[in-house]
Amino acid sequence: MGQRKKISAEARKEANKSLYFAKLNDVPTSPRKMRLVADMIRGMEVNKALSVLKFSGKEASQKMEKLLKSAIANWEVKTEEKAENANLYVSAVYVDSATMLKRLRTAPQGRGYRIRKRSNHVTLYVDTKNTNDNQN
Fold first, then answer.
1. What is the mean pLDDT of the segment spanning 110-136?
2. What pTM, to 2 d.p., does this model score?
3. Domain enclosing residue 69, as ranges
4. DSSP letters of 67-131?
Protein backbone atom coordinates (compact mmCIF):
# COMPACT_ATOMS: atom_id res chain seq x y z
CA MET A 1 0.00 0.00 0.00
CA GLY A 2 1.28 3.44 -0.89
CA GLN A 3 2.05 6.02 1.77
CA ARG A 4 -0.78 8.34 0.68
CA LYS A 5 -3.36 5.55 0.85
CA LYS A 6 -2.04 4.40 4.21
CA ILE A 7 -2.37 7.88 5.71
CA SER A 8 -5.93 8.31 4.42
CA ALA A 9 -6.90 4.81 5.64
CA GLU A 10 -5.59 5.58 9.14
CA ALA A 11 -7.47 8.88 9.16
CA ARG A 12 -10.66 7.08 8.15
CA LYS A 13 -10.19 4.51 10.93
CA GLU A 14 -9.70 7.28 13.50
CA ALA A 15 -12.87 9.01 12.31
CA ASN A 16 -14.83 5.76 12.61
CA LYS A 17 -13.81 5.38 16.26
CA SER A 18 -16.04 8.30 17.20
CA LEU A 19 -18.98 6.96 15.15
CA TYR A 20 -21.35 4.30 16.45
CA PHE A 21 -22.79 2.16 13.68
CA ALA A 22 -23.73 -1.32 12.57
CA LYS A 23 -23.64 -2.68 9.05
CA LEU A 24 -25.59 -5.52 7.45
CA ASN A 25 -24.40 -6.76 4.06
CA ASP A 26 -26.19 -8.79 1.38
CA VAL A 27 -29.72 -8.71 2.79
CA PRO A 28 -31.92 -10.68 0.37
CA THR A 29 -34.57 -7.97 0.13
CA SER A 30 -34.98 -5.35 -2.54
CA PRO A 31 -33.49 -1.97 -1.60
CA ARG A 32 -36.81 -0.25 -2.22
CA LYS A 33 -38.59 -2.35 0.41
CA MET A 34 -35.77 -1.82 2.90
CA ARG A 35 -35.78 1.95 2.31
CA LEU A 36 -39.46 2.08 3.32
CA VAL A 37 -38.52 0.60 6.69
CA ALA A 38 -35.46 2.84 7.01
CA ASP A 39 -37.59 5.94 6.42
CA MET A 40 -39.90 4.89 9.28
CA ILE A 41 -37.14 5.03 11.91
CA ARG A 42 -34.73 7.69 10.63
CA GLY A 43 -34.27 10.40 13.28
CA MET A 44 -36.28 8.55 15.96
CA GLU A 45 -35.24 7.82 19.50
CA VAL A 46 -33.92 4.29 19.86
CA ASN A 47 -36.62 2.89 22.15
CA LYS A 48 -39.40 4.28 20.01
CA ALA A 49 -37.73 2.96 16.85
CA LEU A 50 -37.42 -0.51 18.37
CA SER A 51 -41.11 -0.59 19.22
CA VAL A 52 -42.08 0.66 15.74
CA LEU A 53 -39.95 -2.04 14.12
CA LYS A 54 -41.22 -4.77 16.44
CA PHE A 55 -44.87 -4.15 15.57
CA SER A 56 -44.37 -3.45 11.89
CA GLY A 57 -45.77 -6.05 9.51
CA LYS A 58 -42.92 -5.81 7.02
CA GLU A 59 -40.35 -8.60 6.79
CA ALA A 60 -37.52 -6.10 6.40
CA SER A 61 -38.36 -4.58 9.79
CA GLN A 62 -37.18 -7.74 11.59
CA LYS A 63 -33.73 -7.43 10.05
CA MET A 64 -33.63 -3.70 10.73
CA GLU A 65 -34.59 -4.31 14.38
CA LYS A 66 -31.72 -6.77 14.79
CA LEU A 67 -29.35 -4.27 13.16
CA LEU A 68 -30.51 -1.48 15.48
CA LYS A 69 -29.89 -3.67 18.54
CA SER A 70 -26.41 -4.36 17.21
CA ALA A 71 -25.72 -0.65 16.78
CA ILE A 72 -26.88 -0.01 20.36
CA ALA A 73 -24.57 -2.76 21.61
CA ASN A 74 -21.68 -1.23 19.64
CA TRP A 75 -22.40 2.14 21.26
CA GLU A 76 -22.40 0.53 24.73
CA VAL A 77 -19.06 -1.19 24.11
CA LYS A 78 -17.33 1.92 22.75
CA THR A 79 -18.60 4.33 25.40
CA GLU A 80 -18.77 1.87 28.33
CA GLU A 81 -22.18 3.24 29.36
CA LYS A 82 -25.68 1.78 29.41
CA ALA A 83 -28.10 2.67 26.62
CA GLU A 84 -30.99 3.17 29.05
CA ASN A 85 -29.24 6.16 30.65
CA ALA A 86 -28.31 7.84 27.37
CA ASN A 87 -30.56 9.76 25.04
CA LEU A 88 -29.80 7.71 21.90
CA TYR A 89 -31.38 8.27 18.51
CA VAL A 90 -30.98 6.93 14.99
CA SER A 91 -28.86 9.59 13.34
CA ALA A 92 -28.62 8.08 9.84
CA VAL A 93 -29.66 5.00 7.89
CA TYR A 94 -28.22 4.19 4.46
CA VAL A 95 -29.60 1.49 2.17
CA ASP A 96 -27.44 0.70 -0.87
CA SER A 97 -28.10 -1.87 -3.54
CA ALA A 98 -25.90 -4.96 -3.57
CA THR A 99 -25.37 -7.73 -6.08
CA MET A 100 -28.27 -8.98 -8.12
CA LEU A 101 -28.92 -12.64 -8.84
CA LYS A 102 -30.07 -12.94 -12.44
CA ARG A 103 -32.31 -15.85 -13.35
CA LEU A 104 -34.36 -16.84 -16.38
CA ARG A 105 -37.99 -17.88 -16.28
CA THR A 106 -39.44 -19.80 -19.15
CA ALA A 107 -41.91 -17.87 -21.26
CA PRO A 108 -44.21 -18.78 -24.17
CA GLN A 109 -42.92 -19.34 -27.71
CA GLY A 110 -39.37 -20.23 -26.71
CA ARG A 111 -38.61 -16.97 -24.95
CA GLY A 112 -37.26 -16.37 -21.46
CA TYR A 113 -38.15 -13.63 -19.03
CA ARG A 114 -35.38 -12.26 -16.83
CA ILE A 115 -35.87 -12.37 -13.07
CA ARG A 116 -33.67 -10.10 -10.96
CA LYS A 117 -33.39 -11.09 -7.32
CA ARG A 118 -32.16 -7.94 -5.64
CA SER A 119 -30.25 -7.56 -2.38
CA ASN A 120 -28.96 -4.62 -0.37
CA HIS A 121 -26.47 -3.32 2.20
CA VAL A 122 -27.77 -1.41 5.24
CA THR A 123 -25.70 0.91 7.45
CA LEU A 124 -27.29 2.33 10.60
CA TYR A 125 -25.70 5.10 12.72
CA VAL A 126 -26.66 5.80 16.35
CA ASP A 127 -25.70 8.90 18.33
CA THR A 128 -26.64 10.74 21.51
CA LYS A 129 -28.66 13.93 21.48
CA ASN A 130 -26.44 15.45 24.20
CA THR A 131 -23.28 15.56 22.06
CA ASN A 132 -25.08 17.39 19.27
CA ASP A 133 -26.57 19.95 21.68
CA ASN A 134 -23.16 20.72 23.22
CA GLN A 135 -21.53 21.33 19.84
CA ASN A 136 -24.12 23.93 18.76
1. 84
2. 0.85
3. 22-130
4. HHHHHHHHHHHHHTS-TTTS-EEEEEEEEEE---EEEEEE-GGG-EEEEEE--EEEEEEEEEHHH
Domain count of the chain?
Answer: 1
48-103 tens-digit pLDDT: 999 999 999 999 999 999 999 999 999 999 988 888 888 999 999 999 999 999 99
pLDDT at 130 > cutoff 90: no
Distance (Å, rounded) from C-alpha 105 to C-alpha 111? 9
What are the φ/ψ torsions at residue 116 (nearest 5 degrees)?
Answer: -110, 115
Helix 46-54 with 60-79: angle, nearest 10 deg: 150
Q: What string of DSSP letters covers 53-79?
A: HHT---THHHHHHHHHHHHHHHHHHHH
Burial of 105 (0-12, 13-18, 19+ CB in 10 A): exposed
* 56 lies in some domain: yes
CATH code: domain of residue 115: 3.90.470.10
